[in-house]
Amino acid sequence: MQEKLQIGNKEVFKSASTLAGGVARQGETCGALLGSLMAIGTVVGREKLEDKEQYQKAMEPAMEMFAKFKEKIGHTLCQEIHRIRFGKVYRMHIPEERENFHSMGGHSRKGCPEVCGIAAKIASEIILRLRNESRKIDD
Q1: What is the Cα–Cα distance from 30 to 19, expressed in whole angstroms?
Q2: DSSP symbols for 8-47
Q3: In this predicted model, what pLDDT tens digit does every residue of 29-65 receive, in sequence order?
Q4: How far is CA 15 from CA 12, 18, 34, 61, in A?
Q5: How far apart are alpha carbons 58 and 44 in whole angstroms?
Q6: What CA–CA distances, in Å, run from 71 to 45, 65, 101?
Q7: Structure pTM?
Q8: pLDDT tens readout for residues 65-103
């Protein structure tokens, strides 16, 4: 998304590295969802903590992202996404379970890469719509 939509930078990408496995491999909120929310925030988020108006504007597309992701994937928690897709929870912070996850195809086309692709598609559609709306206001 960064390259195609020209948002963020190397530091933003690096900072998202620890979101994998449901935040530091803990099975919490899906890193693909969090990364998508970061991308949306990069486009429409506030630059100063005090900017409550921009904060409110950023929440609408963020809530849309969350809802659409949950609808398409079935859940927002990594461990529950595992249960839906693979029939069991893999605790990614335990090396043996992480290895089993990889061995059974967790990073195959129907695993995490597909979840990431769905998240990126939803976020990209939202970002492109926001840009189009912004251009119409500027015209």
Answers
A1: 8
A2: S-HHHHHHGGGGTTTTTTSS-B-HHHHHHHHHHHHHH--S
A3: 999 999 999 999 999 999 999 999 999 999 999 999 9
A4: 5, 7, 11, 22
A5: 5
A6: 24, 10, 24
A7: 0.89
A8: 999 999 999 999 999 999 999 999 999 999 999 999 999
Q: What are the residue boundaries of the structural domains of the chain, listed by start? A: 2-138
Under 8 Å between Cβ of 18 and 93: no
Q: What is the DSSP string of 63-114?
A: HHHHHHHHHHHS-SBHHHHHHHHHSS---TTSHHHHHHHHHTTTTSTTSHHH
CA triple 17-7-36, angle to 5 deg: 50
Distance CA 81, CA 89 (A): 8
Q: Is residue 139's pLDDT more than 70?
A: no
